[in-house]
Design goal:
It contains 12 helices and 13 strands. The chain has 352 residues and is an alpha/beta fold. The protein has 2 domains: 82 residues, Fe-S cluster assembly (FSCA) (GMP Synthetase, Chain A, domain 3), CATH 3.30.300.130; 256 residues, P-loop containing nucleotide triphosphate hydrolases (Rossmann fold, 3-Layer(aba) Sandwich), CATH 3.40.50. The strands form 3 sheets. An 8-stranded mixed β-sheet has the order 8-9-5-10-4-11-12-13, with helices on both faces. It has a 3-stranded mixed β-sheet with strand order 1-2-3, covered by helices on one side. It is globular.
Length: 352
């Protein structure tokens, strides 16, 4: 028994009841995780905040149902439970320690080869996270083929303030690309040290501001850019993008091996352009092969291509389409994986 009647309901009773509710992905109770705040008791009505570890929490409805059930069942006298959800993204403290930038998480999107839609996934992931309410940045690290400005619908050169570039903003996302700084018809022929310096400047010479997530669109392959990026910035996790067919999957496995050699946690594999033309199943097979999560499947959809050409990502142009909803779901799954990394293995490095 947590109480006897309406007048006996206390904050201690509520916390005791909510300590029986686990965060489904972190596998610890909400009270231990410090997720319960602002408890108020007004007669038989109990209200409190649940502070999620990401605005893109994929299991908010489950948490809400379990909190309501626990309080109603375990605290006699309660007739109504009101829950307000807020969020505080937990971060990888190594980032501020090394870069002195207020960026909580850096997520690298990679593939073993070009043409698999890696940039499309990066753009729609970033915009989806922003649509959930997160502060999101997008860094186009594909120095040799920077497509992000076109895909985000902004082509003008960024302004400079106090010696730093100001990121462009579109669809709620701040983004920067070497494509802003070079003529569209100029080919880059850079050796490793020049590439390393350019990537470093895209971090240190850009006024990113506070970010919950910085999504990095890597160049295809496993070359100098991946190595430089791992040396410059602590990567919270990496995502592998592949098409379904086995030729693409074999290249994706090499991309995963590169992350492993650089000691970057792999959040999982995304299968892109699935369907009649290229088949399905390769992404799940690749994830199983390297023992990581299969994050989701994006069907081949002409609206994705049109959105990339027009600067309106499919999650903006066709928000109710199955493809847009798949990207939205993908963003929530990835946010959940990032929360797991930061809340369990790196408790001592969390950024409030």
């Amino acid at each position: 028994m947590f109480g006897r009647n309406k007048t006996d309901i206390s904050e201690k009773d509520i916390l005791a009841a909510l300590s029986t509710v686990q965060e489904p992905e972190l596998h610890q109770d909400l009270v231990t995780l410090g997720m319960v705040k602002e408890i108020q008791i007004k007669g038989a009505v109990v209200s409190f905040q649940v502070v999620l570890t990401t605005p893109a929490c994929p299991l908010q409805a489950q948490i809400e149902a379990e909190c309501n059930a626990a309080v109603m069942k375990l605290v006699p006298g309660v007739e109504k439970v009101e829950i307000q959800f807020t969020h505080q993204v937990r971060g990888d403290g190594r980032i501020f320690g090394k870069l002195n930038l207020p960026i909580k998480n850096i997520i690298a999107v990679a593939s073993g080869k070009g043409g698999v839609g890696k940039s499309t996934v990066s753009v729609n992931l970033a915009v989806s996270l922003a649509m959930e309410g997160a502060k999101v940045g997008l860094l186009d690290a594909d120095i040799y083929g920077p497509n992000i400005p076109m895909m985000m619908g902004v082509t003008g050169a960024p302004p400079v303030e106090q010696g730093k570039l100001v990121p462009a903003v579109a669809h709620g996302v701040r983004f920067m690309s070497m494509g802003f700084l070079l003529p569209a018809d100029k080919a880059l022929i850079w050796r490793g040290p020049m590439l390393h310096k350019a990537l470093q400047q895209l971090f240190t010479d850009v006024r990113w501001g506070e970010l919950d997530y910085l999504i990095i669109d890597l160049p295809p392959g496993t070359g100098d850019a991946q190595l430089s990026l791992a040396q410059i910035a602590p990567l919270t996790g990496g995502i592998i993008v592949t098409m379904p067919q086995m030729v693409s999957v074999s290249d994706a496995l090499r991309g995963a091996a590169a992350f492993e050699q650089l000691e970057v946690p792999i959040l999982g594999v995304v299968e892109n352009m699935a369907g009649e033309v290229f088949g399905t199943g390769g992404g799940a097979a690749a994830a199983k092969k390297i023992n990581v999560d299969f994050l989701g499947r994006i069907e081949l959809d002409s609206n994705v291509r049109m959105g990339g050409d027009s600067g309106e990502p499919v999650v903006i142009a066709h928000p109710d389409s199955p493809t847009a909803q798949a990207f939205r779901t993908l963003s929530r799954v990835i946010a959940g994986r990032v929360s797991m990394l930061n809340s369990i293995p790196r408790m001592d490095l969390m950024v409030a």
